[in-house]
């Protein structure tokens, strides 16, 4: 799917496919340097992080394994509450492992701060976070994000893994929706 297929649903392209590719290469170079000589476990949070993960792991040179978690956070409407349920847990024993969480977007940071605490309690050697996108609201909860792709304004975005009612995840760019899509 591309911008043309979206027709009138798309308001604007916020971050292009080229910008995403260049940014992930830049972040991968930093991770290569920081994790030299270490075995890193990339932990993707389903479903949004699937596209970030697949491009990021290909840009990386250090040996990396991948695992996935699906978590659901209870909340009212579009806001998460920080009350989290594990839908699919890791298959990997992370004791002594260097875990790098790969995320699509951080909004309130509530889900993520829960995840970091959960992983640390399982005895990981280190837990760091990489996110493609970050909204200003993330400042409300303290989460140390080591690798951030883009700081974006407080707008609802779709594409590159991010959905609206499970649609638009396959877009190769990050964009905003025309108001008629979510007001109808
Ligand atoms: P929080 O950081 O508030 O705990 O939750 C972050 C999650 O909320 C993300 O993983 C994503 O699923 C969803 N989310 C937050 N902002 C947006 C957005 O602008 N667009 C989309 N599609 N999902 C978002
Ligand atoms: Mg996510
Ligand atoms: Mg969603």
Automatic annotation (TrEMBL):
Its cofactor is Mg(2+). Transmembrane segments: none annotated. Pathway: Purine metabolism; IMP biosynthesis via salvage pathway; IMP from hypoxanthine: step 1/1; Purine metabolism; GMP biosynthesis via salvage pathway; GMP from guanine: step 1/1. Gene3D superfamilies: 3.40.50.2020. It catalyses: GMP + diphosphate = guanine + 5-phospho-alpha-D-ribose 1-diphosphate; IMP + diphosphate = hypoxanthine + 5-phospho-alpha-D-ribose 1-diphosphate. Signal peptide: none annotated. It comes from Pseudokineococcus marinus. Its EC number is 2.4.2.8. Residues 17-164 form the Phosphoribosyltransferase domain. Keywords: Cytoplasm, Glycosyltransferase, Magnesium, Metal-binding, Nucleotide-binding, Purine salvage, Transferase. GO terms for molecular function: guanine phosphoribosyltransferase activity; hypoxanthine phosphoribosyltransferase activity; magnesium ion binding; nucleotide binding. It is found in: Cytoplasm. This is Hypoxanthine phosphoribosyltransferase. Pfam families: Pribosyltran (PF00156). One of its GO terms (cellular component) is cytosol. GO terms for biological process: GMP salvage; guanine salvage; hypoxanthine metabolic process; IMP salvage; purine ribonucleoside salvage. The keyword Metal-binding applies. Belongs to the purine/pyrimidine phosphoribosyltransferase family. The keyword Thylakoid does not apply.
């Amino acid at each position: 799917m591309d911008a043309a297929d979206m027709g009138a649903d798309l308001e604007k392209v916020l971050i292009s496919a080229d910008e995403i590719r260049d940014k992930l290469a830049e972040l991968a170079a930093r991770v290569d340097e920081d994790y030299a000589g270490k075995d890193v476990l990339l932990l993707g949070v389903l479903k949004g992080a699937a596209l970030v993960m697949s491009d990021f792991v290909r840009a990386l040179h250090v040996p990396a394994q991948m695992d996935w978690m699906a978590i659901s956070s209870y909340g009212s409407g579009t806001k998460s509450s920080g009350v989290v349920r594990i839908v699919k847990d890791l298959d990997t024993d992370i004791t002594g492992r260097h875990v790098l969480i790969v995320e699509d977007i951080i909004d309130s940071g509530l889900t993520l701060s829960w995840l970091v605490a959960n992983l640390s309690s399982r005895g990981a050697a280190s837990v760091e976070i990489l996110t493609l996108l970050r909204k200003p609201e993330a400042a409300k909860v303290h989460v140390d994000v080591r690798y951030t792709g883009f700081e974006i304004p407080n707008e609802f975005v779709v594409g590159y893994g991010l959905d609206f009612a499970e649609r638009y995840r396959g877009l190769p760019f990050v964009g905003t929706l025309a108001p008629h899509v979510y007001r109808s």
